[in-house]
Amino acid sequence: MELMIAITLVAAIATGMLMAMRGGLLSLNRIQTRLEDNRRALGIQRILSLQLAGAIPVRSGCSGGQFSPFAFRGSISALQMVSTYSITEGSRGYPHIVEYQVAPDENGTFRLIIHERPYLGPGTTSEFCSENIALHGSAQPFVAATRLAYCRFSYHQVNPDTQFRGGGWVNNWNEPDLPSAVRIEMLTSVPDAAGLPVLSVTASLPVIRDFLDPPYEDQP
């Protein structure tokens, strides 16, 4: 009888220890998943900031005066530009034509998709010469964010009188120069109080004028 009682106690203790270990492993898995999601959110914010800040004023090769001479076009839901930073090569290698697109996601939400391809000269920027933004896309786009309540782009317009001060934000860009900054506003459809939310990105474009233009003048 005493042996049976001892075996029963040992079995109960072992069962309790196994349940505690199982609970700990499940908690560890949830924590690791949350950390990976947070790292991804921070990584996406860094990629977007570097790509926007790496925009370069290359010529598009468009004929006629109705299109911007620069390979940079944007709307509230799409953006095309040439950047020195790519997801695949970082800051190394060729500049890339980068295309951002807001696409429908499941359950009425949205996602942000990034397409990239190497920039090999003005001959590879024919889509910048169409009246509407035409995305060529890629076979395997990079999905930057999913399940968004909204995602929209806006562009900061420089005050033509001062070149540096004033201006404002607009939702479409097809001007003869580059904007001074680009903003990507995102909001997740399902807020998570314990996780890092999808962050909006605002990046300034250091170079906003062509090198063929007259030199900058000192501002008062």
Question: How would you describe what is shown here?
Answer:
- A hairpin with a 3-residue loop joins strand 1 (72-74) and strand 2 (78-83).
- The protein is built from one helix and eight strands.
- Strands 1, 2, 3, 4, 5, 6, 7 and 8 form an eight-stranded antiparallel β-sheet that branches.
- The protein has one domain.
- Residues 210-220 have low confidence and may be disordered.
- The radius of gyration is 25 Å and the shape is elongated.
- It starts with a helix and ends in a 16-residue tail after the last strand.
- The relative contact order is 0.16.
- The protein has 220 residues and is of the alpha+beta class.
Write the layout of secondary structure elements.
Blueprint: H1 2-53, E1 72-74, E2 78-83, E3 96-104, E4 110-118, E5 142-157, E6 168-170, E7 181-188, E8 201-204
